[in-house]
Design a protein that fits this description.
Layout (H helix, E strand, L loop, with lengths): L1 E5 L3 H13 L2 E5 L3 H8 L10 H10 L3 E4 L3 H6 L2 E4 L15 H13 L4 E5 L7 H12 L5 E5 L9 H6 L4 E4 L3 H10 L1 H5 L4 E4 L1 H32 L3 H9 L20 H14 L5 H24 L8 E5 L15 H10 L3 E5 L4 H4 L6 E3 L3 H5 L4 E4 L4 H4 L3 H7 L4 E4 L6 H6 L3 E3 L9 H6 L1
Parallel strand pairs: 1-2, 1-4, 2-3, 4-5, 5-6, 7-8, 9-10, 9-12, 10-11, 12-13, 13-14
Helix pairs in contact: 1-3, 5-6, 10-12, 10-13, 12-13, 13-14
Length: 445
């Protein structure tokens, strides 16, 4: 099949490369000429493990093409995907659908013959109806179907998620579109990937509901972690105990500094606003958003308390900046408000992240960036683990302690064990577990 994808961002590029690997001929379209030129040279605009190799392979085999012009791809494609950004509107938190509707108008201008127009952008319920209206208004009598096909890609594991999905959701009541979408995803269905056909509005809502539920699990375990610290329990044991219940499951039960990234914050805001607009407010989502926002400030206070209650003039070594490992994405990363709060408290910040430092410089001011973890730690008054990159799980802790001015480690991802850190002589603070104070240091304070 011939496929056109509008938008060479995270979703569009990963989806295009994977569909090309199925054997489809895919043309990715983006108005950013510099991005298209870079992709044609084999340069990836994002860090995603394995993506560069997958793109290069399918470009070589002429199944994956890049262009800034939609006209020709729209004429020849059987399926046209809309995979553009839907950021939150600053005024009200609703998804900004400007790019989605602009793409719809451009498709209407360029399409020839019957087209399946697939919205892969995350959009509020009812957006497919508006896309249909826009195209009908621009091209009366045109033959097309608008389908909702939400993505469920995790940054850092997107290729595996696309190639081995736990479900494929397709929202359409058009039988011809259903047959075409079944053929498009036939390689995955043949490999026993579940495919769920729904009404279009149901598919639009599934994406938001899924992200909201996952954010709820994160927020819940973070509040349980706070209780564990007060009650003298270990949140990891609690999480394992409830996660073994197959009605709950173990995923998204890792306590930490709160959720971030490109999806959860904006999707929960959009779902909250959509509920209000439909007269069906989702109060639990309103609460989750508020709790997650407050958690960042709480984590900054936790770091300051671990440093004796005052960080003015102190140098803090921050390991990890991105909202999760295996990505360079700094969008809504917990590190940003936490570091800003620490700077407000007078701390000097030195940071290292394997992939995120370039993007971090655009959102963080006054931060010194190090070349490796040990350069970051050297001479610092405390070490803070912000993101659970594998390289931080394998630190030479004896060396790290020798480089610190004081053996203080604040682990916001619980990647080390308290008994090990106690044995090594650290004052160690984690999330949802009893802190470990190194006796001499505790006495000095």
């Amino acid at each position: 099949m011939r496929v056109a994808i509008i938008g060479c961002g995270y979703v569009g590029l990963v989806s295009g490369a994977c569909m090309a690997d199925f054997g489809h001929v895919v043309t990715c379209v983006d108005k950013d000429a510099a991005k298209i030129a870079a992709l044609q040279r084999g340069e990836m605009p994002i860090f995603e493990p394995g993506l560069g190799d997958l793109v290069a392979k399918n470009v070589r085999e002429r199944r994956l093409l890049f262009t800034p012009d939609l006209v020709e791809p729209a004429k020849t494609a059987d399926v046209i995907f809309i995979a553009v950004g839907t950021p939150s509107r600053p005024a009200d938190g609703l998804a900004d659908l400007t790019y989605v509707y602009q793409a719809a108008r451009e498709i209407a201008d360029a399409m020839v013959g019957y087209k399946v127009i697939v919205n892969k952008s995350t959009v509020p319920v009812g957006t497919g109806d508006e896309i249909t209206r826009i195209i009908c208004e621009a091209r009366p009598g045109a033959a097309f179907a608008v389908v909702s096909n939400p993505e469920f890609l995790r940054e850092g594991a997107a290729i595996a998620d696309f190639m081995q999905p736990d479900r494929i959701v397709i929202g359409t009541s058009d039988e011809r579109a259903r047959r075409i979408m079944s053929e498009l995803y036939r390689p995955l269905v043949a490999a026993n990937a579940p495919i769920l056909f729904t009404e279009r509005r149901g598919a639009e809502l599934i994406k938001y509901a899924a992200n909201a539920f996952l954010a709820t699990k994160i927020t819940f375990i973070n509040e349980i972690a706070d209780l564990c610290e007060k009650a003298g329990a270990n949140v990891q044991e609690v999480a394992r105990g409830i996660g073994l219940d197959d009605r709950i499951g173990p995923k998204f039960l890792n306590a930490g500094p709160g959720y971030g990234g490109s999806c959860f914050p904006k999707d929960l805001q959009a779902l909250m606003r959509t509920g209000l607009d439909f007269g069906a407010p989702i109060r639990s989502i309103e609460t989750i958003i508020a709790i997650n926002d407050q958690r960042k400030r709480a984590m900054a206070r936790k770091i300051i308390a671990a440093c004796g209650g005052n960080v003015r003039g102190s140098t803090l070594a921050i390991l990890g900046l991105t909202f999760k490992p295996n990505t360079d994405d700094m969008r809504e990363a917990p590190s940003v408000p936490i570091i800003t709060a620490l700077q407000d408290g007078g701390a000097n910040i030195r940071a290292y992240d394997p992939e995120g430092m370039k993007h971090a410089q655009a959102v963080l001011q006054g931060v010194e960036y190090a070349d490796d973890p040990y350069a970051c730690i050297k001479g610092a008054d405390a070490l803070v683990i912000m993101t659970e990159w594998d390289v931080f799980r394998k630190l030479d802790l004896v060396r790290a302690k020798s480089l610190l001015r004081q053996p203080i480690a604040i682990d916001l991802r619980n990647i080390y064990q308290p008994d090990e850190m106690q044995r090594l002589g650290f004052t160690y603070v984690s999330v949802g577990r009893s802190p470990v104070a190194q006796p001499a240091l505790a006495a000095a304070k």
